[in-house]
Design brief:
Distance between the termini of chain A: 37 Å
Order of helices and strands of chain A: EEEEEEEEEEE
Oligomer: heterodimer
Helix content of chain A: under 10%
Structural class of chain A: mainly beta
Number of strands of chain A: 11
Radius of gyration of chain B: 13 Å
Strand content of chain A: over 45%
Structural class of chain B: mainly beta
Shape of chain A: globular
Order of helices and strands of chain B: EEEEEEEEEEE
Largest sheet of chain A: 6 strands, mixed
Largest sheet of chain B: 7 strands, mixed
Largest interface: A-B, 27 and 32 residues
Number of helices of chain B: 0
Strand content of chain B: over 45%
Distance between the termini of chain B: 36 Å
Number of helices of chain A: 0
Chain lengths: ~110, ~110
């Protein structure tokens, strides 16, 4: 099943600008993860935030989680052309097991 | 070794063929996964192996048959596929099926059924 929806579906920004992507989900979760996928390649794990956390940082990435609204956001600061990729949120749907179900994804294009 | 290796990278097969996709990891991960991804869509979970045992089969047709010969290796056997099965097949692993950690993905096998 697929429970996450991401917004926007596509985002185009200039290099140096910040990019914000949002994810909404339907069921309770134990954690939410963000992944990046370059065209036609495998996914790369970016960051994991647990249900009892509200914000997490990793380098230029900032993730927030609002369990009351069942939503998360991923902020990439000072974007680079190399950040061009699709970004997916993924949750375990509260199963307690590490089985991930992915959202619809946001296609980010960073223009040099 | 921090990688998941998938072979082949590309595969073209006829609807009457039998082929296999292979996935290997040497990180000591005890959970392994198969995902299917159509163009411009998110990955869809197909199978989950926990400690070499099949724990989840997300209503996948029997023409897809997974196998986990040992803790490092995961295969996906393909038989009598349809053109709509053409997709990117991704393998992933995680340290433990209950650890709630991130996945390590392979680069995928691009499958075309003709």
């Amino acid at each position: 099943s697929q429970q996450g929806e991401e917004d926007p579906q596509a985002l185009s920004i200039q290099e140096g600008e910040n990019a914000t992507m949002n994810c909404s989900y339907k069921t309770s979760i134990n954690n939410l993860q963000w992944y990046r996928q370059n065209s036609g390649r495998g996914l790369v794990h970016l960051i994991l935030i647990r249900s009892n956390e509200r914000e997490k940082h990793s380098g230029r990435l900032r993730v927030t989680l609002d369990t009351s609204k069942k939503s998360s956001s991923l902020l990439i600061t000072a974007s680079r052309a190399a950040d061009t990729a699709s970004y997916f949120c993924a949750t375990d749907e509260g199963t307690g097991a590490n089985n991930l179900f992915f959202g619809t994804g946001t296609r980010l294009t960073v223009i040099p | 070794d921090t990688e998941v290796t998938q072979t082949p990278k590309h595969l073209v097969m006829g609807m009457t063929n039998k082929k296999s996709l292979k996935c290997e990891q040497h990180m000591g991960h005890r959970a392994m996964y198969w995902y299917k991804q159509k163009a411009k869509k998110p990955p869809e979970l197909m199978f989950v192996y926990s400690y070499e045992k099949l724990s989840i089969n997300e209503s996948v047709p029997s023409r897809f048959s997974p196998e986990c010969p040992n803790s490092s290796l995961l295969n996906l056997h393909l038989h009598a596929l349809q053109p709509e099965d053409s997709a990117l097949y991704l393998c992933a692993s995680s340290q433990d099926p209950w650890a709630s950690d991130g996945y390590t993905f392979g680069s995928g096998t691009r499958l075309t059924v003709v």
